[in-house]
Amino acid sequence: MKHLALLDQKPLVESFLNQGPRPLSSYSFVSIFAWGDFFDFEFKMINDCLGIFAHGETGSFLYLPPLGKSLDSSTIDSAFEHMAKGGVPKAVNRIENIPENLLSVFGSGSYNQYSRPVEYLYAKEDLIALKGNAYKSQRHDCNLFVAHQKAHVFEPYVDADFDTCRDLYERWEIHRAGTSNDDVYKAMLQENRLVHGRVLKCWKPLGLIARVLKVEGQVIGYTFGFALDENTFVVYAEISDLKIPGTAAYMFRSFCADEELIKFSRINTMDDFAMPNVARAKQAYHPSALIASYTVSKETT
Predict the structure, then answer these.
(1) How far is CA 239 from CA 52, 166, 219, in A?
(2) Do 249 and 138 form a contact (C-beta atoms < 8 A)?
(3) What are phi and psi of 296, to 5 degrees?
(4) Cβ–Cβ under 8 Å, residues 65 and 105
């Protein structure tokens, strides 16, 4: 029921997102819906702008800067007042996912600004062609997969694939958790299990493009994403069987080359969660641009 209530807000959110550019992957209803198991979202009009507030156990924050053409400092101040519910702003009260071009709205003196991990943007044709020495490793992985997995298919996800994709994630999570002593990383793995399950359950109304990679009928990988704007496609998730060499590289290349992505010229793979191993993997594909993102909080006394 909570899923359906949040889905009802999709037309409203999309109507405001469509009023301006979508510079970050978070500028999508999918990105909001994905975290519905962790936050109660509130959609509130402030000075003709739409504020998307996320309320959790520790307090409230604004998931995006207020959406609308009339965003100004008074709207920002009103948003912080709402998060504080008439009291003194708390440290947790903040605005997330602020693109660089909007930082000027916050002025100076009364706000703290923090850099978030950058998002990675690629030219799609580079990810498909994998030309030159720069992509030697990725070509090797793709060729290795094709050579050893003759009976493979890369096909559209259907509801009947849900259980096998969930099982694959659990195996992947166990393996990943076993390679790290970082409690934050392990918690993130658990959170994303819920995120993936939630989004895959509602892939149709969300407008996702989702694919599964199968060998002899068994799911060994899944990936899904969404259109951010007319030129940019966001690859939101990619889970593969870590025991089969080349699976991730082959699936990523296949997804980028998918017929349903033909109209997009750019691929956004979101951020690296400030994790060096993830950053190295994304840098290895030679992004054409790194997109800055910021968080702003109000100075408290």
Answers:
(1) 29, 10, 10
(2) yes
(3) -125, 135
(4) yes
Q: Tell me the CA distances in angstroms from 283 to 186, 197, 220, 226, 271, one per residue in order.
A: 23, 28, 25, 22, 11
> How do 209-215 and 218-227 pair as beta strands?
antiparallel
For residue 243, count other CB atoms closer than 10 A to its CB.
9
Average pLDDT over residues 251-279: 95
Whole-number average pLDDT of the chain: 93
CA–CA distance, 141 with 123 (Å, rounded to integer):
20
Q: Give the tokens for residue 262.
A: 């033909």
- According to DSSP, the residues that pair with 148 across neighbouring strands are none
Q: What is the pLDDT of residue 1?
A: 44
Tell me which residue of 204, 229, 260 sits closest to 27, measured CA to CA: 229
Task: Output the six-digit token pair for 27.
Answer: 């500028």
Listed in sequence order, the residues at least 6 apart from 182 whose beta carbon sits closer than 8 Å to its beta carbon are: none
Grade residue 11 by pLDDT with cuts at 50, 70 and 90. very high
The model carries a pTM of: 0.94
Count the neighbouring beta carbons within 10 Å of the beta carbon of residue 46: 21
| φ, ψ dihedrals at 246, nearest 5° | 85, -5
Give the pLDDT confidence of 201-239 residue by residue, as tens digits: 999 999 999 999 999 999 999 999 999 999 999 999 999
- CB count within 10 Å of CB 149 equals 18
Instruction: State how far the Cα of 139 lies from the Cα of 169, in Å rounded to an integer.
Output: 25
pLDDT of residue 279: 93
Query: Per-residue pLDDT for 292 more than 90?
Result: yes
- Judged on CB neighbours under 10 Å (0-12, 13-18, 19+), 131 is exposed
Is residue 74 within 8 Å of 24, Cβ to Cβ? Answer: no
Query: What is the four-CA torsion angle of 134, 99, 13, 223, rounded to 10 degrees?
Result: 20
Residues 239, 242, 248, 254, CA torsion sign: negative
